Amino acid sequence: MHTSIDHAPTVSGRRVRPNDQRHGTPRRILRKFGGVPYLMPSLAILLVVVVAPIVMTLIFSFTSYSILQPGEFVGWENYRALLADQAFMSSVKQTFVYTLIVVPLQTLLALVIAEIIAKRFPNLFGSFARSVLFIPVLSSLVVVGIVWRFLLDPRAGVVESLFRFVGLEQPNWLGRPFLALVTVALVTVWKNVGYFLVIYYAGIMGISRDLYDAAALDGASRVQQFVYITIPSLRPVTFLVVVLGTIWSFQVFDLVYTMTGGGPGGATTTMVMSIYQAGFQNYQMGYASAMSVVLLAIILVISLFQRRLMGKEK
Amino acid sequence: MTRSRLGRAFWTVLIVLALIVAMLPFFFMAITSLQKTTSAGLSFDLSRLDLSNFARLFTDYGFGSAIVTSGIVVVIACVLNLVVASLAAYAFEKKPFPGSEAIFVVYIVTMMVPVQVTLVPLYTIIKELGLFNTHLALALPIVNAFGVFLIRQFMISVPNELIEAARVDGASDLRIFTRIIIPTIRPVLAALAVFTFITTWNDFLWPLVSVSDNRMQTVTLAAANMVGNLAQQYGLIMAGATVSFLVPFVMYLILQRQFVEGVTASGIKG
Predict the structure, then answer these.
(1) Do B19 and A129 touch (CB under 8 A)?
(2) CATH no. for residue A221?
(3) So what's the ipTM on this one?
């Protein structure tokens, strides 16, 4: 207490008349950069595990770095090879197809379920439903992949018994090329809906009640209210959900690894799977880095696109 | 009147159906893990219920050490992320210096780059640092700019007058940080802790490429490895998945609010 009183005049004096201080004194510079020590730990870690790897990915992508050689500068060689690499090109195509299935489906389902819960069940049942639908979200993709692989396995016969129960033949979910990709996409939707539901639900709750009351007075049905009030009001939310869903889709790996391992015949190999195979199974680090740069470019374009449109919204 | 009641029944059935679809896979996972059988199907015999699959996870498949490893990595990741991120957010928001905003922009930009993209150099760096097969190596890549961004958003609400008043009373920056900032931002720290916990526990790709020593396997990695190694030992595989699932699940039951906050905030970062 005593010491704080002793120091008080200097401290408050400095605060009240900052312009009286002469610029450039060591003490003042020190004060000016007083935040630096607090930033240091974070900056150091980020430089090592995020910034340096980003820069190195770019550099590696122009080298022949592999387990056999430290890597020489090869110019655009890796990128040229990528264009001719059938397996990589189909992994790009498959990632796009996967995204085109996942994003519209999970967005629509999340929106519709959020609307039903918000409008029909503004009660304990509704909040219970939201909590339960969130459980697939918190579970890891590995667990989801393992469990669905088991459920769909004809030898284990879980989904098969359900199909037989309604008198249908179970399709060979993970055994046929295109169907396997669709199946992985559907499991992704199953896992993600609860997450986007939470975001949509918050969005719907944020829409003014007056809008609905006025529409109801004018005789608008629930469906009309949904189409003409809810959906337009949720545009920024939908935007977030679509962009986030797209970025996540381009990062897909765990689910493919555990459900199909990229098969059958490479039909479910996604871009990250290709990177993993090139970098950590074939040890062609330079080549894998070039793939990473392509993936990064796609993700950045989506993010920048988001930023521009978001800016326009405001 | 009957029409609206019919409508209500319809919507209730629809939502209940959605809940069943969401929960049924976990239900099958749990009952299969409790059975010795190698094929499950829809039959479930209470008399065959036993815990031998779980016992074997620990005796034969290293789940004991996996749980310890995951636990240590989670603790390191949470402590590191929380301490480092809140200090950095304090610097950015309350003690800015020339150039700090430029650094913050770099932070924001790095949030757009997923870890999948930087896997190869990250592996090289961790190897060069001699950190291979250490807990730190598994925890470090969890630390990213998102935590800093999240805490900074929250720290804006700490009034500058409060900080000035403390400074007038002679409080040092560090004291202001520990006595004023930290207590005010406690809710966001809780949310970030839960989020970091789950991200670390569920992390798969980085442990997959960076762990070569079996004793350093995380639970998620151990559970995934069982699929390839055991083919049709469904009971055993499902037991591994159940253990991996239970930790986030129990945490969710206890800390539901922080959970949804943390995970939702992660989406807003976009």
Answers:
(1) yes
(2) 1.10.3720.10
(3) 0.89
